[in-house]
Every structure is written in structure tokens, then in C-alpha cells.
Design a protein that fits this description.
The complex is a heterodimer. Chain A is mainly alpha-helical. Chain A is built from 13 helices and 2 strands, in the order H-H-H-H-E-E-H-H-H-H-H-H-H-H-H. Chain A has a two-stranded antiparallel ribbon with strand order 1-2. In chain B, the strands form 2 sheets. In chain B, strands 2-1-3-4 form a 4-stranded parallel sheet. Chain B has a 3-stranded parallel sheet with strand order 5-6-7. The chains are: A mainly alpha, B mainly alpha.
Chain lengths: ~325, ~550
């Protein structure tokens, strides 16, 4: 059910984009909506990050995944249990760039009906790495459309990405890896019964969305062979705030672009904000030095306690009887 | 006479074959449409009104979990939603954890309760979704517009019942948090969930009664000062019987160098009491100038399982007592959740402890730099340092009949990272030490199934189910290496792992680490050690006829 809703929603949106292109609504689908989507993306993301950042962190609660820093001769696992800002940055970098926690993933199995085993399970890590990293590279490649002259790192990325030198225009590895990665994540979500059980429309929708963007993008480059010069003209127009609409651009392009707009607009208000959220996770971005450096709770308030005096008043006779020293005889 | 049939709060009620037939396949019905099944043995009794009043908790009332009507106070829905809004604005953790989960499922099979029960709501992700679905509906733009389509749901009394069942089916062990790519910590979610339930006066008695006791008498068991003195005196007698050494027991002693505290579980029940005896014996032998406190007679803090405020209300006694007694620094014994509180909360909540000195070992002169602000040292840090400097005279062969494995307790492992110190100590006092499989130890350690206030007998089925992964790993080393003892530096472990081992790996006993140390230690002026602290004969060290003659001569 949730799968179908996600799929139908994406197909519907794609159709809307196609129709917009076919009906010559280039100004809306090629100018107004991209600007609006970008505004929502940037504004939304800033809003979300500032929102999180404005919430206090009352306690320092890192999840420690290795040996603490204690006695000088005990070897600390600095990246799993950081004690300083520097090592926290190391831990975060590994988490953000390499998804290190996912790298530890295991799959629990019961063998012989009585013995639990925990096998390394890298499927999710590989799928996630493939999807995220290829997405980044695809984005960098798209900068070609928004820049003139094209910066060297974009050309360099393209050259490396197209190393197979297959097809005309050349096939980029990351295009394929991206689509395969998203498809695998979707397959995984559907095929592992526990994961399917927890999945919401919110989980299928972005996967179908990215899949559709990836497939339509590949289609545009290799099958429909869009008028790339006109696309670049439009893209540069957007960047220079003097938008133009080229009539020679196919409806398929508008379908692709509209889905990208939807993704941008949807991003800050959905689970996709994990991209920014991971940086603010207190169990990962804090140093485990609680006993060495005092952490301050900004909203700390006095609480009702049972003082020693009240305790002794309550129990003085018994304490004296047992020979336990008291403050007041 | 036939034996009475076992009841659901007894281990014998459950057949291993049944519990091993875990079905991890989710049910046909969607989780939002699957109501809670309150089955005896899987839930904990409510907090008693009398105990709640001691601690001034709201809406004290006597009710039963199986009641149709939980007598939720007027305006309960508003109370919960306002409570959520309040916490979302105070805890970045809560807000970020509500927002960032992508339901990747990495955590799904990391929870011992899921592994042991197969109940999908014991997957950490779904445990959080119980709360997140309400959050979505009432606090997010998409949820407000799309409602159920965006994964939101209405807050109803059934949701409250579900929260109660599943937030008291989480031991806040944080294992899932290790595997989560965003570090989402179910302990944090559960703590928030329990706080929200608390706003409606919904608690479990296994937590609230200890909290009330601790508030009034300084320890969870409600041991009064004279009772504590008697308890420790009895231990001194047993120590003398085992070793021939008579120890002093300093209580509420002003001007002592060190304030020592440990979880009160170690005062009353085996095998914890042997660890407690070991502390006193070690301090006596090492000439440590320390004191117990009757007021701060529990380092454990069930406030952690109640609310942040409750935690602070109970924790305040530690520093204030250290100040009153004029000690220089504080030493804490073997405990799990106590160390989460001491290490991650105490300094912030009830510090700064600037009236204390930076801890320095009187034995070795080592300054504990890692505790320079909080001024509290873990007994394993202290002992590892002392052993490293050769300050303990040890004869590990006295423990040769023991083949020991070590269970990392959740909180010291994942809320602190004290992994090597206890292992160093164990290796120095035991010749036969065997690790359990690597996915079940250190930061990946499995909970005993009874932490965070779940270790009560009425919860026996869930304890055995939750204890399955740990018990399974214990049985592995038992079968492979002949392991016969499991060492754990946590009082809840020492209470609940006894059951888990008896059930899943019968023949394996539970011990504290200090007990192993004291049994291996050669004391000044000790009599020939024929018995350990449990007053069991030590194999290979039995009394010979010659000893008896000597002993008789000595007695004459």
C-alpha cells in the first residue's frame, strides 16, 4: 500500500512535469518552480539547522564505541571514543564520509535452532555508499550546465567518471551506479520483511523520486538526446537571474527538472534532512570527557532533594544507637 | 507431594524449546493496527500510589495494567503534547532523533528484546516510531497536512498503553545506537517516553519503589543506617571466617580521604555481597583511608529510569555528602547504570565538585586526569593502576578452578568505554579467561535483559527472552572452553544474569570482578586460605590433616 502510494505520487508528478513541458508552460516549469524549489531547499535547510542548533544540549551523552581515555598505559580508541574536539571531528568525518556505523552492521541468524550468530552484513553500507557518493558526483557533473567557462574540477570529474569511454555521449559510471544504488535500496526495503514492515510512504516516495530522476536523466542524455545547448542556456539564465525559455527543449526534460524541483522542496521537510541532522547528533558529535571537563546544562534548575539534615532528623536515634556518628546529638 | 506448577514469574514456567522458536517475521497487520497484548510475564506492575507520594509524583493512584480504564487524568492528551513540546525544545537529542531517522533498519535486529521475542515493536526503530508517529502528526508540517499518509497517528489511550508496554521493554542499553548511522539512541527515546508517561502518573513499581526508598533512606532497598551497619558487620564476620582477618568498617567518617559508594544491591544478595566483602577486604589490606556513607549509601540511581529530574534529585546526595564528610575525592564500585549517571550526568547535574581534590591514588601517586573535574574514579581504574604498579600481592592460582568470561555491562561499555581496565584486572587475577564472541562483547555487548528497571520476576518471560543473546554467548564459551563463571561489574547483572545463566547456560555462576581479586590476593597475616569469600572450599587448597593439627595446636 505504502509502496503504491509512493510510486503513484512520483509517476503523477512526473506526468505533471511532462505535461507542463508539452503544453508550453516553460516559464512556470523551467523558471518559477526551479527558483521556488531552490528557495524552499536553501531556506528550509537553514531553518531546520538553525532550529536544531537553537535547542540546548543539556547533557553530554556520546555513545562510546571503544576504549575510553583513562590511565596513560591503556590504549584509547580515539576515533570510537573521542576525548577531544580534534578526535570528535575524526569520528564525525568517518561517519559522514564513510558511514562507519553502517560498516559495522551485522545480520542476526539462528542456526541449528539454538545458536545465534551475527554475520557481517555490508549490503546496506554498499548500497548507501553507492547511492550517496554517485549522487554527489552526478551533482558536480551537472555544474557544467550552470557555469561558463566550466571549472576544471567539473571537467576532471567528468573525465574520471567517463573512463570507460563507452557510447556517444560517453556513459558515466556514476549514472549507472546511482540508479543501481537507488534500485538496490528500494529492493532491500521491499525484500527484507522487517524493513518493509517499518517502511512508510515517506520512505518509498524519495526512493521512487530519485529513481525517476536518475532514469529520466540517463534517458535524456543517451536516448532522447536533448538539445543540451538550449538546456545550458536555460540553466545559465537561471544562474544569471535573466531567465530564458528555449522552445527546443523536450517535455522529458521538464519531467526530469520538475522531479528535481520536488526533491529540493521536499528535502528539508522530510527524513532527507538526515544529511544535515547527522552533524548535530549529540551521541556522535560530543567528546567523551565528562569527568575531565564539566558540561553545563543551560536550563538547569534547582530540584527538591532530601537533605542530610532531614535524613538525620528522621533517623538520628537509630544512628546513635548503632554508634554511627551524627551532626546533632 | 507433587511440586506446585510453576507460575509466569518463575523461570521454570518457560520451556527453552518454546522460547528458542522465535519468529522474526512481522505479523500481517500493520503495526499501527496491532494492539498490545498484556500477557503475564511480559509486563511490569504499576507504581504504587504510596511510593509515588513519597517522591511527590503526580496523579498517584492504584491501578492495574490489565484494567480497561487506566484512569488517565483530565486533559491527559494536552499534558502529553505539551510535555513533548517542552522536551523537544530542551533536548536537541530528542528533536534530532525524531527528525533524522530514515528507517534503514540497521538497528532492527540489534536489540536483545527483538532477537529474543520477535515482536517488531521491539525493533529500536519501531520503538521510536511509537513516539515519532505522534510527533509527526502534531509537530511536523508534512504530518499536519498528510496525517496518516505521512506516518502520523492520533494520540489515543491505546497509544499510551503501547508506550507503557514498550518503553518498559527497553533496557536503555544503547546497543542500537552503536549501529545507527546517525547515532539515534533509543535510551534517549525511552527516557523521554517514560517522562511523558510519568506526567500522567504512569510508572512501574520496580522503579518507583526503589526511587522512593533511595530518596528517603539513601539507597534503593530502603536499608536504614543501623541496618546497613549490621549488614556490613555480618560481612566482616564472614571475611574473618574466610581469611582470618578482622577488618574495620568506617561509616560516615569525617575527614576520610575517599568516599566510597556502590550499588545497594551488593549489600543484600549473593553474589553481590561477595563483591561488597571484597571491597572492604581490599581497602583494609591496601590501607585505604575511606568511608561508607549511610546517607549516600547507593551509587545506583533509578532516577535514570524515571526522569532527568528524578535522577538529579537522587544524585545530589553524592557530592553533598562528600562535602559534609570533607573527603578529598570519590571512588565508585562496580555498577552499570550508576556509572552512566556518574560519568555522563553527575558533574553537569550536581557539580561542580570544586571542594574536592583531583583524585590521586594513595598507593601509587597516579593522578586520575580523566576524572580531574568530576573527582570520581571507577574501582577498576583504581585497581588496574594499583596492579600495574605491583601494589597488590596476587596469587591467581587460587582462582585456577575458575574458568571465567567477562560480560561488558551496557552503560560502562557504551556510556563510558571502560573496556580494558576490567580485562587487565581479570587477567591478573585469573589464569583462565575466555572472551565471548566479538559481536557480543565490548561496545557490542548484549544486555542482561533486566536493566533500566526491568529486572523483576513478574517480567520473567521478557527477561529470559531479552537474556537470550547474552545467555547464548555464555553457553558458547561454556561448551567451547568449559567456562564456569561469568564476571560482571554491575549489580543489576549480578542479580539478573544469575537467572539468565541458570536458564540459558546452567552451570555458569556469576561473580563480581573484585570478588575474583580478593580471592586471588595474598593478605598480610591471613590464615591458610582454604575457603573463598563464598565460604566454599577452594579446590586444591583443601585443609590437610597436617593443617588441622597445626590449627588445633594453635587453638590450644
Amino acid at each position: 500500500m505504502n509502496v503504491m502510494v509512493g510510486l503513484v505520487a512520483v509517476l503523477g508528478l512526473f506526468g505533471l512535469g511532462l505535461a507542463g513541458g508539452a503544453l508550453g508552460m516553460g516559464w512556470i516549469f523551467g523558471v518559477v518552480l526551479p527558483y521556488a524549489a531552490l528557495l524552499l531547499f536553501v531556506g528550509g535547510l537553514i531553518y531546520r539547522v538553525l532550529g536544531w542548533a537553537s535547542i540546548p544540549v543539556p547533557f553530554r551523552i556520546p555513545t562510546t564505541s571503544g576504549q575510553q581515555k583513562s590511565l596513560s598505559w591503556v590504549k584509547q580508541q580515539k576515533l570510537d571514543n573521542p576525548h577531544s574536539t580534534f578526535t570528535v571531528i575524526g569520528r564525525m568525518a568517518l561517519e559522514v564520509l564513510l558511514f562507519r556505523s553502517l560498516l559495522k552492521n551485522t545480520k542476526t541468524e539462528m542456526v541449528e535452532g539454538r545458536r545465534l550468530v551475527y554475520a557481517t552484513d555490508l549490503g546496506l553500507w554498499i548500497g548507501a555508499m553507492a547511492m550517496h557518493w554517485s549522487l554527489l558526483i552526478v551533482l558536480i557533473r551537472h555544474l557544467r550546465l550552470f557555469t561558463n567557462p566550466v571549472p576544471f574540477f567539473v571537467t576532471f570529474t567528468e573525465n574520471v567518471d567517463g573512463f570507460m569511454e563507452v557510447g556517444l555521449p560517453v556513459v558515466y559510471v556514476t549514472s549507472l551506479v546511482f540508479v543501481a544504488g537507488v534500485a538496490y535500496l528500494l529492493y532491500r526495503r521491499l525484500s527484507i520483511s522487517q524493513v518493509r514492515y517499518i517502511s512508510l510512504v515517506n520512505d518509498y516516495f524519495p526512493l521512487f523520486l530519485m529513481l525517476a530522476i536518475g532514469v529520466s536523466g540517463v534517458w535524456l542524455r543517451h536516448l532522447a538526446k536533448t538539445d543540451i545547448a538550449s538546456v545550458k542556456e536555460m540553466a545559465l539564465g537561471l544562474v544569471r537571474f535573466s531567465p530564458v525559455v528555449a522552445d527546443s527543449v523536450s517535455p522529458l526534460f521538464y519531467g526530469h527538472l520538475f522531479l528535481v524541483c520536488v526533491l529540493l522542496a521536499y528535502f528539508p521537510f522530510s527524513k532527507l534532512v538526515h544529511m544535515a541532522g547527522v552533524f548535530l547528533s549529540p551521541t556522535r558529535n560530543m567528546a567523551n570527557n565528562n569527568r575531565a571537563v564539566r558540561h553545563i546544562n543551560p536550563w538547569d534548575y534547582p530540584v527538591k532533594v532530601h537533605t542530610y539534615e532531614e535524613y538525620e532528623d528522621d533517623l538520628r536515634e537509630k544512628m546513635i544507637g548503632a554508634g554511627i556518628p551524627v551532626e546533632k546529638q | 507431594m507433587t511440586r506446585k506448577a510453576p507460575k509466569p514469574d518463575e523461570m521454570e514456567y518457560y520451556q527453552q524449546e518454546d522460547l528458542l522458536k522465535v519468529d522474526w517475521e512481522p505479523p500481517k497487520t500493520s503495526w499501527m493496527d496491532t494492539p498490545v497484548d498484556f500477557r503475564l510475564g511480559t509486563y511490569i506492575y504499576p507504581g504504587k500510589a504510596k511510593k509515588m507520594k513519597v517522591f511527590d509524583l503526580p496523579y498517584p493512584r492504584d491501578w492495574a495494567v490489565t484494567d480497561e480504564d487506566w484512569q488517565l487524568p483530565d486533559g491527559w492528551k494536552k499534558t502529553v503534547l505539551e510535555g513533548m513540546a517542552d522536551r523537544l525544545s530542551k533536548y536537541r537529542s530528542f528533536k534530532v532523533f525524531m527528525d533524522t531517522c530514515v528507517r534503514c533498519g540497521a538497528c532492527s535486529d540489534k536489540c536483545h528484546f527483538f532477537i529474543g521475542s520477535g515482536d517488531p515493536k521491539n525493533m529500536p526503530v519501531l520503538r521510536a516510531e511509537l513516539l515519532r508517529s505522534i510527533y509527526r502528526k502534531d509537530f511536523t508540517a508534512l504530518g499536519k497536512v498528510f496525517g496518516k499518509l505521512a506516518g502520523g497517528r492520533e494520540l489515543t489511550p491505546d497509544v499510551i498503553k503501547e508506550w507503557f508496554y514498550y518503553f518498559y521493554q527497553c533496557t536503555e542499553c544503547r546497543r542500537c545506537s552503536v549501529f545507527c548511522p546517525y547515532g539515534i539512541d533509543t535510551a534517549e527515546i525511552t527516557m523521554m517516553g517514560r517522562e511523558l508517561l510519568g506526567l500522567l502518573g504512569l510508572y512501574v513499581n520496580w522503579v518507583i519503589e526503589p526511587v522512593a526508598n533511595c530518596y528517603r533512606y539513601g539507597n534503593h532497598l530502603g536499608i536504614q543506617p543501623h541496618g546497613l551497619k549490621d549488614t556490613l558487620d555480618f560481612m566482616a564476620d564472614d571475611i574473618e571466617e574466610a581469611t582470618g582477618i578482622r577488618i574495620d568498617i568506617p561509616i560516615n567518617k569525617k575527614g576520610a580521604e575517599i568516599l566510597f559508594f556502590t550499588p545497594s544491591g551488593d549489600f543484600v544478595a549473593a553474589p553481590g555481597i561477595y563483591t561488597c566483602m571484597a571491597y572492604m577486604l581490599l581497602f583494609h589490606e591496601l590501607g585505604i583511608d575511606y568511608t561508607w556513607s549511610t546517607y549516600a549509601s547507593d551509587g545506583g540511581n533509578f532516577g535514570l529510569f524515571t526522569s532527568h529530574e528524578a535522577m538529579k534529585r537522587l544524585n545530589s546526595k553524592i557530592y553533598s555528602e562528600a562535602k559534609r564528610l570533607g573527603v578529598k575525592w570519590i571512588l565508585g564500585g562496580e555498577c552499570g547504570h550508576m556509572w552512566r549517571v556518574i560519568h555522563q550526568y553527575m558533574n553537569t547535574m550536581t557539580g561542580p565538585a570544586d571542594f574536592l581534590e583531583v583524585p590521586k591514588s594513595p598507593l601509587t601517586g597516579t593522578v586520575f586526569e580523566n576524572a580531574r573535574s568530576a573527582k570520581v574514579v571507577h574501582i577498576m581504574e583504581f585497581l588496574a593502576d594499583a596492579i600495574r604498579h605491583g601494589k597488590l600481592k596476587l596469587d591467581p592460582s587460587r582462582n585456577d578452578h575458575i574458568r571465567v568470561t567477562f560480560h561488558d555491562s551496557c552503560n560502562p561499555a557504551r556510556g563510558m568505554g571502560i573496556l580494558e581496565e576490567p580485562r587487565y584486572v581479570i587477567r591478573n587475577v585469573c589464569n583462565n579467561f575466555f572472551e565471548m564472541p566479538e559481536n557480543t562483547i565490548r561496545e557490542q555487548t548484549f544486555c542482561c535483559g533486566g536493566g533500566a528497571g526491568l529486572g523483576t520476576d513478574e517480567n520473567m518471560e521478557m527477561r529470559l527472552r531479552g537474556g537470550l543473546p547474552r545467555g547464548n554467548a555464555v553457553r558458547y564459551v561454556q561448551e567451547r572452553h568449559g567456562v564456569n563463571q561469568l564476571a560482571a561489574m554491575c549489580a543489576i547483572d549480578r542479580a539478573t544474569l544469575v537467572t539468565v545463566c541458570d536458564y540459558w547456560a546452567p552451570g555458569v555462576e556469576v561473580t563480581g570482578i573484585c570478588e575474583l581479586v580478593a580471592n586471588a590476593m595474598v593478605f598480610e597475616g591471613e590464615s591458610k586460605r582454604t575457603h573463598n569469600l563464598r565460604l566454599e572450599p577452594i579446590p586444591g587448597m583443601e585443609e590437610t590433616e597436617e593443617d588441622e593439627v597445626v590449627e588445633m595446636a594453635a587453638n590450644e
